[in-house]
UniProtKB/TrEMBL annotation:
Species annotation: Pirellula staleyi (strain ATCC 27377 / DSM 6068 / ICPB 4128) (Pirella staleyi)
Domain annotation APS kinase: ranges: 26-194
Active site, UniProt feature: 123 (phosphoserine intermediate)
The protein's name: Adenylyl-sulfate kinase
Enzyme class: transferase
Length: 222
């Protein structure tokens, strides 16, 4: 039993009413994969295409969310060490778990607002992604969580290395780096499996849009 006496409050405007206004359904399109696999690039193309179609979409992106909702302990230093340690997030497994849990809660709110919510996080642990899936689908509908595995071999991501992070990780300057000193647990049955080393971001984005159309999320606008 929740001893905090916090009670869920029903909304006056329903999700269905918001979706009717939008002329499309809400959902979460959850991009996952190694750093540098192309999550942000593909998600941004999808976002742009959805915007062109007149959809209400929004992209929650790893780097940006870690500057705002989920800052590192160092970013919270001005609040004092105890606070920063308690609420700041790094990349240890329990930090990533909390990062993904909070993002999942935000994504679930966006879906209930009838929005197509795109997320681009490494989200390396299956259990964390599955927890978001069950939160989103239990509060919403069975097809509300679309897991998109952006698949590029580690060698390809490392060769791309746009932020120079792999180089630093190889030099031992970044602990817990996914693919180098931390694991990546590939999705076992994602809704979509994108081959990012073989196809362009535009082609991959078209695969996402085709899927959204196939399951009836954007029929009325595409
Ligand atoms: N240790 C470690 N491992 C992986 N990635 C790291 C790490 N440290 C910093 N970065 C940078 O932070 C981005 C990943 O943040 P996420 O919030 O997506 O990570 S996670 O979902 O909590 O695993 C990730 O962004 P992308 O490159 O866009 O994936 C990196 O730029
Ligand atoms: N399908 C693709 N083919 C070739 N290069 C790509 C592709 N997708 C992304 N890139 C390039 O790979 C790098 C990493 O992409 P990014 O979207 O930042 O990855 P992530 O968000 O997964 O870290 C960028 O330089 C980007 O231009």
């Amino acid at each position: 039993m929740d001893k905090t006496h916090v009670v869920w409050h029903a909304h006056n405007v329903s999700r269905e009413e918001r979706e009717a206004l939008n002329h499309h359904a809400g959902c979460v399109v959850w991009f996952t994969g190694l750093s540098g696999c192309g999550k942000s690039t593909v998600a941004n193309v999808v976002d742009r295409e959805l915007h062109k179609l007149g959809a209400r979409s929004f992209l929650l992106d790893g780097d940006n969310v870690r500057h705002s909702l989920n800052p590192s302990p160092a970013m919270l230093a001005s609040y004092g060490e105890t606070f920063a340690k308690r609420f700041g997030l790094g990349f240890a497994p329990e930090d990533r778990q909390e990062n993904i849990r909070r993002i999942g809660a935000v994504a679930e709110l966006f879906v209930s607002a009838g929005m197509i919510t795109l997320t681009a996080f490494v989200s390396p642990y299956r259990a964390d992604r599955n927890l978001v899936r069950s939160l989103v689908t239990s509060r919403g509908r069975a097809d509300d969580f679309i897991e998109v595995f952006v698949d590029a071999p580690l060698e390809v991501c490392e060769a791309r290395d746009p932020k120079g992070l792999y180089k630093k990780a190889r030099a031992g300057e970044i602990p817990h780096f996914t693919g180098i000193s931390d694991p990546y647990e590939a999705p076992e049955s994602p809704e979509l499996h994108l081959q990012s080393a073989e196809k362009s971001p535009e082609v991959l984005a078209a695969e996402v849009l085709a899927y959204l159309k196939k399951i009836g999320k954007i029929n009325a606008i595409s």
